[in-house]
Amino acid sequence: STQGVRFLRGHPGTIILLIFTGLAALPLGNLSVFHIYLLVKNRTTNEELTRPYGSQDPYNLGFRRNFKEVMLVPNDPSHFNFHSLVQVSKLGRLDVPIGPPADAEV
């Protein structure tokens, strides 16, 4: 314990870093808890603030089914081909075209 106090006295930057980390963790922790609450209730931030359904939320399926619906269901595949935007030249460098790809439907 006394070694830790001696260490901190000799390293004021560590104390500043600990204070900064603690101050940054408070709002991030609150935000994380709020988003976990939204996940449990199966709501968006807008639905939480405006309460369009009153006390009877038709999308709240209970904790387990809400969690499964949000976290375990795979996302729909994208209809956009991101690899068509960047091409590798013969030299091994990335050639980024300006504008849409030649095969894009505009």
How would you describe this protein?
- There is one protein chain.
- With 106 residues, the protein is mainly α.
- The chain is built from four helices and two strands.
- Strands 1-2 form a two-stranded antiparallel sheet.
- Strand 1 and strand 2 form a beta hairpin.
- It is flat, with a radius of gyration of 25 Å.
- The mean pLDDT is 82.
The first-to-last residue Cα distance is: 68 Å
Low-confidence spans: none
Task: Give helix and strand order, one letter per element, not per position.
Answer: HHHHEE
Approximate shape: flat
Radius of gyration: 25 Å
| Helicity level | 40-55%
Q: Sheet bearing the most strands, described? A: 2 strands, antiparallel
Number of H- or I-type helical stretches: 4
Question: What kind of oligomer do you see?
Answer: single chain
Mean pLDDT: 82
Q: Which structural category fits the helices and strands?
A: mainly alpha
β-sheet strand percentage: under 5%
Strand line-up in the sheet with most strands: 1-2
